[in-house]
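Tutorial handout. Part one gives the primary structure; part two gives the three-dimensional structure as tokens.
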Amino acid sequence: MFVFGHAGLTVAATHAVDRDVDSRWAAVLALGPDLLDKPVSRLFPALVHHNTRGFGHTFLFSLIVLAALLLAKRRLKPALLLWGCYAGHFLCDSMWRGDNPAILFWPLLGDFPPPVRGPIISWLTLGNVLGEAAGATILYRLARRHGLFERPRLAAFLKSGRLA
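Part two.
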């Protein structure tokens, strides 16, 4: 899945659980593994065997994120909810399929595997297309429902991160 799928599905889920959650952080954390791993794979390709899923996609790194959230939030529920955004990325990326478990449980299962190469159509699967469409639709509907197309409401959202 890509940007809209990760962000839209995660923001909707966190908003359904807690209407006071900071949706900005929910979206950033949902994209967190890719925000870390995509630059690393370009800047240090040998470190992750040219794979665009690396350290950020590991359970070990997700525990580091959880610890940072617990220190920052100082309360269990908001920290766990936001950590769920980060960990939810693993669900959207189907980290249980193919070589992904070797990445998810790194270093326990060995080094990062090289990426699976193929035509562009191979990663534009129906799941990715549907996930992106669902995520974009969810984000649009949330923005419309909460008046984010109006400048004052958008400014308030950007300042607080709350959709209420």
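Part three, for discussion. Residues 13 and 26 are 10 Å apart (CA to CA). The chain has a mean pLDDT of 90.
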